[in-house]
Design brief:
The chain is α/β, with parallel strands linked by helices. About 45% of the residues lie in helices and about 15% in strands. The strands form 2 sheets. A 6-stranded mixed β-sheet has the order 1-2-3-4-6-9, sandwiched between helices.
Length: about 270
Amino acid sequence: MKKIPASAFRPEHFKFEVDGKVATITLNRPERKNPLTLDSYGELRDLFRDLVYCPDIKSVVLTGAGGNFCSGGDVHEIIGPLTKMDMTGLLEFTRMTGDVVKAMRNCPQPIVAAIDGICAGAGTMLACGSDIRYGTAKSKVAFLFVKVGLAGADMGACTLLSNIVGHGRASELLFTGRAMPGTQAEAWGFYNELVEPEALQQKAKDMAQSLADGPTFAHAMTKKMLLQEWNMGLEEAIEAEAQAQAICMQTQDFHRAYHAFVAKQTPKFEGN
């Protein structure tokens, strides 16, 4: 299988930094509250796809610059051109944006989102595509699709958001497009935890580092099963987890944990 070193990732449309085993992706158009463009969509999709082949990186932090996460698709660079496309072009675009979320869910590295300020439109779906979300009380989360005359069914929102906050709450957010304040986002389970703005980035990096220092083969298996089991019945899920766990029991990390326990030591995982 091909391998891509962490140093090979050099995106043009957002910041990408690597500290040890943790990569940080920063949406970096703070003057516009970090909107996405056609190019940044494509680069995000390709980067998350390529992370499958990057053993150097064990976890990812996803955030935005300048006190905001992401304001969604750029009105001038995306929404305007969409009004002039035919059906073939429109479907190509919507499939491409959905492919970003698919790539996020299919890459083995856990993704920790650090969300401050505005998290709107497509930005909400980057948040939903992440595995863990930390937010601030002053953040605002808005699934704005209905505000521009579109369905809330965008980039997997109807499935992902329903799984995160429940069907009724997801329905209200998607039908109304209203902004959900940070305190409510935590109460509804959208955020794992509220953090003070000045501590947000460090909180996300600490969690990503903790995950990167853990049994990363097993973490990747957990992420894979969380995705696959959405479409399984209970008996299928139990059997799938039996197989997944048997595979993990063959790893060196499993043996390291046992020997460390016997020696009354803390295990040092290496991801194999």
